[in-house]
Amino acid sequence: MNKTQKKVALLAVGTALTVLLAGCAMAPTSQAVDEATAQVLKGSFREQGIARLDRLKLDASNQACSEAAGKPLDEKLAKAIEEANLKTVKFPLDGKFIGNWREGEKIAQNGRGLTWSDKPGEANGGSCYNCHQISKAELSFGSIGPSLYNYGKLRGVSDPAAAASKPIVEYTWGKLWNAKAYNACSGMPRFGHAAILGEQQIRDVMALLLDPQSPVNK
Amino acid sequence: MKSSLYGPAALAALTALALFPLSAAAQKSTAEGIAEYRAMLADGNPAELYEAKGELIWKQARGPKNASLEKCDLGKGPGVVKGTFVELPRFFADTRRVQDLESRLLTCMEQLQGFNAADIAKTSFGTGEQKTIESLVAYISGESRGMSFNLPQAHAQEKLMYEVGKKVFYLRGGPYDFSCASCHGEDNKRVRLQDLPNLTKEPGASTGFGAWPAYRVSSGDLWSMQRRLNDCYRQQRFPFPGYASDATIALGVYMGVNSKGGASTAPALKR
Questions:
Q1: Model pTM?
Q2: Which residue in chain B has the smallest CA separation from A47?
């Protein structure tokens, strides 16, 4: 390499470095983004009615799923989150899993509860129709979650009290109690775990899904 | 040969043709139904009244300093309105902040007219000076109607706010574990009967972001983007986002940058 060639080569490296550095200066580091985000969140929200600021504190599941930004989690991490959530599932002490599907249908229709405009102490709804097709008669349903029409029938539940139905009954209860026990970043609220619905309300939604007399299985 | 016209195959084809419009109508999707409903109302979008009022207010001497907003810099120089809406939020050198249309209007109302921006930010939506802002955003957005979103991303603060906005968009919190992405992170989803734009990319981003401010038939009022975001957060069961707060501005940057190339329809009409 002669002197001129060296000079040209050095100049090229220098230009590449300048472009690279400019690029670095432009794109914020992930640390800078995290710090700025924390600061922005701290300064942007206030408490209103029953919606307190602690709602911005994330548990390990929400932390990991927020960071994933819509992308799938690492398999090991997903499994760990699911196991931790499964441990929170509380089965009914009296062994009674199935309530009244008519009450369950009302809960599925009711989308109220826990917003800053809701009053404390009022019974919350399940908001089920917001995301799921459930009964055939209701046309105003969402599609964020899968269709639950014929939920029990498709899973072969002809008698929820029968021993053969036990695995489906327990899984359904667990899913309603804490959906993240089976899918780490499930979009479904953790109805029992987060105390959105009470035990009797969950029994009634169970009946809506599993009772052969419910419109879901007709 | 002539008789073949009335043969069974031809008859079936004719019947199918005759029935086609009917079956197509029967299969009309919810989205098409809603689009049709909007089209029927579009001729008389009440947002036009807000636009006209907003233009008057923009030019009117008001506030303790008895001045108009005609020297307000929305990003393209003092007094320029046309084309500003599709480039907001952006960085402003005088405030050293990234601002959306509404936070920028607060700055102008304070600096030029002598209003107290913090007091206006605390005012309930649809009352007092908040009502003024709703007319102003209708006018200003209307002056960019049909233009394509092209938010600047040259300044380091603008890049940072995009990344912060993305973080805030995917932040899952509250008792329901919801984030903005819970409803607006995928294509072709709906809540109840309402179609949900995917705000993470085009064309969903401009369909959603580019339609606000909008006249909402269900509430009989014009809603600004800040009001729309506020109600999203209410339904997410989050705490209350401050009016013109940085979290809402960061979300505006995220959605606005994702809308690049898509046309603004604001002020639009919503059911």
A1: 0.87
A2: B239
